[in-house]
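ARCHIVE RECORD
Type: protein–small molecule complex
Small molecule: guanosine-5'-triphosphate
Source of inputs: curated submission
Record status: active
Notes field left blank by submitter.
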Amino acid sequence: MSTFFVDSQSAINYNFQMQFVDEVRIFVTGGNGGNGCVSFRREKFVPKGGPDGGDGGNGGSVYLAGNKKLMTLYDLKIKPHYRAGRGGHGKGKKMHGRKGKDIFIPVPVGVVARNDTDLLGEIMYHGENLLIARGGRGGRGNVHFVSSRNRAPRRAEEGSAGEDTTVHIVLKLISDIGLVGFPNSGKSTLLAAMSNAQPKIADYPFTTLNPNLGVLAHDLNNIVIADMPGIIEGAHQGKGLGFQFLRHIERTRLLVLVIDISGDPLAHYHGLLEEFRAYNPQLVQKPRIVVFNKIDLVKDIPRFDVSEKTFYVSARDGTHIDDLIKYLSNENTIQTQ
Ligand SMILES: Nc1nc2c(ncn2[C@@H]2O[C@H](COP(=O)(O)OP(=O)(O)OP(=O)(O)O)[C@@H](O)[C@H]2O)c(=O)[nH]1
Ligand SMILES: [Mg+2]
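STRUCTURE (tokenized, with ligand):
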């Protein structure tokens, strides 16, 4: 088996530094099958040996291979062509050609692959493989063509061509926790306060154009937190960074609504839920909590009577961030909600 690998350390660096690419087209070709062989046995003292041409080997296939260390399709964007190995030709003495090498293309967990007409499948687990281009079959050697009329066939099959196809791959991040909210509410600041990530933070909307990922180190498991681009009204119709944003939160296990308490908190709260509902009603079924951020900007902190669990924090100053981390790190928070 041949594998294109990124070593694990560079794969980890990718998570946080490389360009985030969540949609690519790649061109993949299965290996051609090897040709069957026309051959006759030649042995001393055996004047007329029978046919002994072996079969060609099958061509290699191309697979996507889930790798949890990858978080972007960047690699595929810069290297979009893949071809698996061709099968060896059959040989005399009934020797089969060797099988062509398979190719396993590492992709992040959470990708969906389709060709021009069909859904090919999804990768949902680390180590899961998905066939995207089948290798050609090896041709049969002349031993298969013996009949009562023709004891010495001079005929063998050619190997068939490997499948040649364009595959469209879309990544829907699978993160444990997704930070969502209107632009400027402090999502990236909160991510920086809770994880090892160092996202860009600035005092204007749409600072975050692609999701940032951070890891909250935890005794048992690392919790992956995704900081999403800001959502605005009409996102479900594609406004702002609409679809890109909403697509990624579909697979997040817990949503954290981040709301600037110094603005119009309840309007933002309802506005967010409205966008979710309009995009995909299942989003509002997802477990969620509400974090009211920027409490340093208000004198008396108002308390809101919403149905979710709430936190009142200052991501900038770190106020009450510990409580939030403790809550999110609790295994039960993510698994059983
Ligand atoms: N006073 C105060 N300012 C904050 C707090 N959290 C974030 N900010 C500021 O709010 C501004 C926006 O912060 P970001 O973290 O970039 O906000 P965001 O939600 O990621 O914004 P987008 O990516 O544009 O959607 C920055 O100037 C931050 O310094 C806070 O707790 N208190
Ligand atoms: Mg941001």
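CURATOR ANNOTATION: Residues 1-18 have pLDDT under 50 and may be disordered.
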